[in-house]
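Worked example 3 (structure in, sequence out).
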């Protein structure tokens, strides 16, 4: 390789990381603008608390419903093209949300948020698949670590900055930052012609797409309603049953098709199956350490929202520090070490919280979230572990399926923890708890101990990961699959 070729390759890789990080940062800024601005939106638009939640939920539901479709389109149409489509949709959605806010039109705001969710569904899997295409297996961990370090830094400080904009200007102007971030990401992804997978002009699985959308929407909405109405509600049971039936139909259809939307046969590959499981389960501790810690420090410890926001930056900074370390561990020894270490840290963080919650000890809560935040960052290489074992033409699809597992897991765990919190608080109050705050603290402690047990199971499963090489049709390396432990590659074979 000549010096000029080496410089060109380095430039490609640099812009690949920056573009992927900018894409993730765009969605992080969008999410922060919505979460921080939601109370102001409710007042300005004159809507109820329940209605205001749809400003947040509609984007998440659209994202969950179309993220696998977006990944599959990347396989068929090219990663960069779909990445750009996603950014354009996010930009357009943010502009519509901005206009709806200025006009005071709730329906327009909802439409803008739906567009933003659709854009994220296209952009997020394409950004992950791009890194896999551009970097060799020995470089992917470091690339992912750098990408996460940049995006998590934005995630840490975006709420504070946007909070100032919302407080001193107006909430619609927060979405102009989303527009700016999308423009930057669009420029970066178009800066270099990536040596990516050749688009596959194959037929699209419209039936599978419709069934997936139906399954995700019904299950997600059903779980959301369960957090309000309870899991025994007839409407909740009907929604969940409908979603499960659509899911079963999707699996049966996919097993019959030659080119299905979701290739369920990939789950026969050990690392892919384990990665999907870990992707789902790791969000249980993440939910407890995020939303429920924020609720705890305000409702139990009596801290202000401003102080709470500052405290929540600390675990995110732990992720910023841990992400590149996890990437280096992945490149050096494979995925098993960083992922199992990450799940182990999640267990340690949960144990600390389980002790700190009932004791109402702020320092233990902070330590638990910091340890857990670092642990979550160390589990990120599980995505690379799965994608390394996925054929090139199916990477986009799997890159979309894994965020779906995470999104669905978040929704599921929030509903289950909320329901469990209500049950255990009622028991504590009936048992003579001195106050509602004390009952909540004790109930959260009980729920967290249950989460410790669940996460220990996840730890055992993560130890089953194999340190194996990428398939022979790997775009970046062209090296063969290694079905044994690292060190004895088998060239010319496929998974």
């Amino acid at each position: 390789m000549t010096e000029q070729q080496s410089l060109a390759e380095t430039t490609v890789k640099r812009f690949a990381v920056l573009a992927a990080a900018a894409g993730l940062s765009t969605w992080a800024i969008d999410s922060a603008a919505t979460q921080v601005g939601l109370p102001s939106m409710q007042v300005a638009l004159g809507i109820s608390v329940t209605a205001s939640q749809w400003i947040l939920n509609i984007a998440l539901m659209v994202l969950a419903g179309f993220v696998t479709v977006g990944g599959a389109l990347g396989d068929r149409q090219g990663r960069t093209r779909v990445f750009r489509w996603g950014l354009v949709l996010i930009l357009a959605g943010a502009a519509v949300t901005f206009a709806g806010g200025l006009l005071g039109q709730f329906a327009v705001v909802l439409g803008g948020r739906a567009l933003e969710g659709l854009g994220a569904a296209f952009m997020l899997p394409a950004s992950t698949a791009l890194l896999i295409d551009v970097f060799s297996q020995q470089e992917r961990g470091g690339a992912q670590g750098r990408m996460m370090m940049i995006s998590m830094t934005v995630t840490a400080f975006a709420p504070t900055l946007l909070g100032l904009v919302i407080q001193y200007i107006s909430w619609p102007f927060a979405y102009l930052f989303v527009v700016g971030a999308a423009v930057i990401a669009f420029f970066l992804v178009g800066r270099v012609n990536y040596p990516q997978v050749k688009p596959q002009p194959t037929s699209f699985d419209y039936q599978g797409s419709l069934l997936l959308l139906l399954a995700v929407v019904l299950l997600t909405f059903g779980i959301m309603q369960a957090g309000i109405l309870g899991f025994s509600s007839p409407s909740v049971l009907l929604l969940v049953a409908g979603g499960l039936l659509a899911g079963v139909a999707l699996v049966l259809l996919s097993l019959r098709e030659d080119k299905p939307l979701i290739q369920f046969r990939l789950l026969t590959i050990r690392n892919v199956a384990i990665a999907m499981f870990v992707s789902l389960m790791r969000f249980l501790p993440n939910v407890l350490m995020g939303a429920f810690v924020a609720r705890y420090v305000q409702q139990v410890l009596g801290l202000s929202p401003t102080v709470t926001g500052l405290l929540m930056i600390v675990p995110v900074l732990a992720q910023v520090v841990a992400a590149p370390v996890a990437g280096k561990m992945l490149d050096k020894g494979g995925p098993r070490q960083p992922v199992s270490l990450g799940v182990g840290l999640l267990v340690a963080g949960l144990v600390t919280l389980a002790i700190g919650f009932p004791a109402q000890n702020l320092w233990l809560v902070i330590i638990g979230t910091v340890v857990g935040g670092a642990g979550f960052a160390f589990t990120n290489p599980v995505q690379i572990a799965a994608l390394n074992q996925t054929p090139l033409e199916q990477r986009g699809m799997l890159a979309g399926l894994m965020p779906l597992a995470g999104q669905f897991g978040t929704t599921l765990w929030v509903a289950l923890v909320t329901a469990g919190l209500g049950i255990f608080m009622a028991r504590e109050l009936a048992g003579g708890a001195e106050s509602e705050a004390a009952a909540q603290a004790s109930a959260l402690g009980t729920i967290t101990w249950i989460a410790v047990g669940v996460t220990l199971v996840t730890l055992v499963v993560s130890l089953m990961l194999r340190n194996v090489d990428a398939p022979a049709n790997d775009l970046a390396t062209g090296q063969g699959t290694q079905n044994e432990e690292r060190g004895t590659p088998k060239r010319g074979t496929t998974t």
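Notes: The chain has three domains: 1-192, 205-260, 265-495. Confidence is low (pLDDT under 50) at residues 477-495.
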